[in-house]
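Postdoc handover notes: sequence design on the structure in folder B. Input tokens:
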């Protein structure tokens, strides 16, 4: 390598000295570009900083006209510098002017320079600026020089990220790095939280970039890589593939990458330029993340994710410890940010300090979202590059009502949100005041409000909602959040604790509703064209009765001496109900024969969520002890819209005549047969939905914990008789779907119902 003064290691050492000097930010930058130019025998070295509006401002130069500093501002896609920034890739050209992206700013005087080497200034995959060297001669920079410049850019990235340069910026043109940013994602869990960023996989703060002894550093890297490979082999051989929540395929992919020569060569090449093994991992990680963010190929993105995870593991090997934040270190008002996270990992955090969650992946139906909802913390998913943008300790607002996130918010935004939080708190206090009031409508009708639950962390909600019992306990959640199939004694313990917590209040346990989209990570799944219509729920339970039998046994044992309700999901034919009920009877006989204490009473019922069941109601009502309508699935099947597909899930109105008539008919038949009927789909958790249901004969609803306050507040003001007359009229002659919803809203407004 052509180097005037000792190559990259000397450059890095000098840089470290400059970083430690007590000089102004501008002086420091000026010294840095001089150093780089001298070290790389370049006539020009310039630093461009990405501003929050996406433009690139020249912050320092050696070689170009000094007057252009802070004057030259390039558009995001302008020239070669713009290209380096947007691609987050190095650009090495011996004849820059012949490149199609070349554009020239006369004030810089750069027309006389032919060769060009630009590297992105990257931090956690996010571009913060561009570092450029140029020479008059047509010269191709050798690979080592590219590496050296990239390493130097890491040091600059830390300087920009520290906020030091903000003092040099004109108002309104601050560097993107520390500027406030508004991101959007999809809502996973409702609520608003203000707090401070905690990275689930924290970036390691590297204090030493420069290797004192390169061969020794290479050896450290090799040792860590060997240890990483051995660990992966051992995990796979042990068959304990659930270790760390990972699936076998994922571990196989990790092993493949860990043995991939391209990856290890990139790491050792980076070390060879004179940086420490940790700094090399960080650099390769940052490049990987930058590529990931720009890749639209889902397969490639997935592989890059694997590589990123592997980088984290390697870093842990090098640091010799797990650098994940411990429970004790968690600050108050912590808002967790992660690329992705399993439900168990979320439950590991201290609930008292945790205020919110932001994920780069994660959809509303994911298990971690279910847990976030159960914890009552706002959560937002599908937030692009949240991990790369936020720094630990940054102020952050998570608005789970709109899907917005504000990182480093302005004082105005913070004040507005603080007010909204106070308003919500006041409303919560009003709801709390309703808790012990009997749930009776204005015209004196008693309404039963039950709770939807599924995890042990839901149990305090029995108390704080003042519910009349649990109307739907989704037993599959215990199976979904765990790393392996819960043993029967674990099932027994959970069911017992649910019944203990409920005391005298009734509890309806729904048997496993797995399969389809509710896959268990540790269970082999068969690819299905239409998983929602596939081998799931009771179908699976009847075909593989072992699982169903042991679950029912656990339920009956847990209920020894008390009452319990057992409900089956996805029943499509009455004969399926008969078969499932037979399993309950057989288990009761088994327990009796083995001297176990039996439940005092067992009610057996079913969900009504498959349209075919609507035409078997007479036969069904003769057999069941109760019914509960699963309006989420019933709607999905009646309208043939995938509830998990955001392109279609909102396409049809949940308050339109076809579905409402179906719901009305179910309630009418059940009421006539004097069979208790409830509804546990999301509709019941919306005040407007609850209004519609009450006006069609439903007197029992099962709701999520947060819905109890708003729905009860509506019921207390409602004259059900009036609502029934209106609904009967609307369903008689509906003039299109919109009118029913709107007319219900008009009615609510006229009656002063809080919706
Ligand atoms: C439903 O389908 O309405 C229901 C309550 O069950 P789940 O949402 O668990 O499918
Ligand atoms: Mg369902």
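Designed sequence:
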């Amino acid at each position: 390598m052509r180097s005037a003064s000792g190559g990259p290691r000397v450059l890095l050492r000098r840089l470290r000295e400059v970083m430690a000097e007590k000089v102004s930010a501008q002086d420091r930058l000026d010294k840095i570009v001089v150093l780089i130019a001298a070290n790389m025998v370049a006539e020009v070295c310039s630093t461009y900083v990405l501003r929050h509006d996406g433009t690139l401002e020249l912050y320092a130069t050696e070689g170009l006209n000094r007057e252009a500093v802070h004057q030259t501002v390039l558009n995001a896609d302008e020239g070669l510098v713009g290209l380096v920034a947007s691609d987050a890739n190095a650009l090495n050209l011996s004849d820059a002017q012949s490149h199609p992206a070349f554009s020239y700013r006369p004030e810089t005087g750069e027309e006389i320079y032919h060769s060009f080497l630009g590297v992105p200034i990257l931090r956690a995959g996010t571009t913060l600026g561009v570092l450029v060297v140029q020479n008059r001669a047509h010269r191709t920079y050798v690979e080592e020089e590219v590496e050296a410049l990239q390493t130097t850019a890491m040091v600059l990235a830390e300087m920009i990220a520290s906020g030091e340069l903000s003092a040099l910026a004109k108002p309104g043109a601050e560097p993107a790095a520390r500027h406030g940013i508004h991101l959007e994602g999809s809502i996973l869990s409702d609520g608003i939280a203000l707090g401070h960023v905690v990275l689930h996989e924290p970036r390691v703060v590297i204090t030493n970039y420069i290797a004192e002894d390169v061969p020794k550093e290479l050896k450290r890297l090799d040792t860590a890589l060997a240890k990483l490979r051995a660990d992966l082999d051992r995990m796979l051989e042990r068959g304990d593939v659930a270790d760390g929540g990972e699936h076998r395929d994922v571990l196989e992919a990790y092993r493949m990458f860990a043995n991939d020569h391209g990856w290890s060569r990139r790491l050792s090449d980076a070390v060879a330029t004179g940086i420490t093994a940790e700094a090399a991992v960080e650099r390769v990680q940052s490049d990987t993340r930058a590529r990931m963010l720009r890749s639209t190929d889902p397969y490639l993105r997935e592989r890059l994710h694997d590589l990123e995870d592997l980088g984290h593991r390697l870093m842990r090997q090098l640091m010799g410890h797990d650098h994940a934040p411990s429970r004790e270190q968690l600050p108050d008002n912590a808002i967790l940010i992660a690329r992705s996270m399993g439900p168990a990992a979320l439950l590991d955090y201290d609930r008292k300090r945790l205020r919110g969650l932001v994920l780069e992946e994660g959809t509303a139906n994911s298990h971690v979202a279910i847990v976030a909802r159960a914890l009552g913390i706002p959560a937002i998913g599908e937030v692009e590059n949240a991990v790369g943008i936020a720094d630990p300790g940054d102020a952050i607002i998570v608005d789970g009502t709109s899907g917005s996130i504000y990182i480093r918010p302005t004082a105005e935004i913070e004040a507005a949100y603080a007010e909204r939080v106070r308003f919500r708190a006041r409303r919560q206090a009003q709801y709390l005041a309703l808790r012990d009031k009997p749930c009776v409508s204005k015209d004196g009708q008693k309404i039963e409000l039950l709770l939807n639950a599924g995890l042990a962390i839901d149990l305090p909600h029995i108390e704080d909602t003042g519910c009349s019992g649990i109307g739907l306990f989704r037993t599959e959640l215990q199976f979904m959040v765990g790393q392996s199939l819960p043993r029967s004694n674990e099932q027994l313990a959970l069911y017992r604790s649910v019944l203990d917590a409920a005391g005298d209040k009734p509890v309806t346990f729904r048997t496993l509703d797995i399969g389809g989209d509710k896959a268990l990570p540790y269970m082999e799944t068969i690819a299905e064209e239409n998983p929602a219509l596939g081998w799931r729920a009771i179908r699976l339970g009847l075909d593989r009765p072992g699982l169903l039998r042991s679950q029912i046994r656990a339920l009956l044992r847990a209920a020894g001496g008390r009452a319990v309700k057992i409900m089956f999901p996805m029943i499509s034919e009455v004969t399926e109900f008969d078969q499932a009920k037979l399993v309950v009877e057989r288990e009761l006989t088994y327990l009796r024969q083995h001297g176990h204490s039996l439940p005092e009473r067992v009610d057996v019922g079913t969900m009504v969520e498959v349209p075919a069941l609507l035409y078997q109601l007479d036969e069904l009502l003769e057999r069941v002890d109760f019914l509960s309508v699963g309006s989420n699935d019933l709607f999905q099947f009646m309208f043939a819209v995938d509830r998990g597909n955001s392109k279609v899930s909102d396409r049809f109105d949940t308050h339109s005549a076809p579905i409402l008539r179906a719901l009305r008919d179910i309630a009418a038949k059940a009421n006539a047969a004097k069979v208790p009927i409830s509804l546990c789909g999301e509709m019941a958790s919306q005040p407007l939905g609850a209004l519609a249901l009450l006006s069609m004969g439903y007197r029992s609803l099962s709701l999520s914990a947060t819905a109890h306050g708003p729905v009860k507040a509506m019921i207390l003001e409602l004259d059900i008789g009036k609502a029934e007359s209106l609904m009967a009229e609307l369903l008689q002659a509906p003039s299109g779907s919109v009118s029913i919803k709107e007319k219900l809203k008009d009615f609510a407004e006229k009656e002063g119902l809080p919706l």
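Context for whoever picks this up: The longest helix spans residues 214-238. Don't rerun without checking with the PI first.
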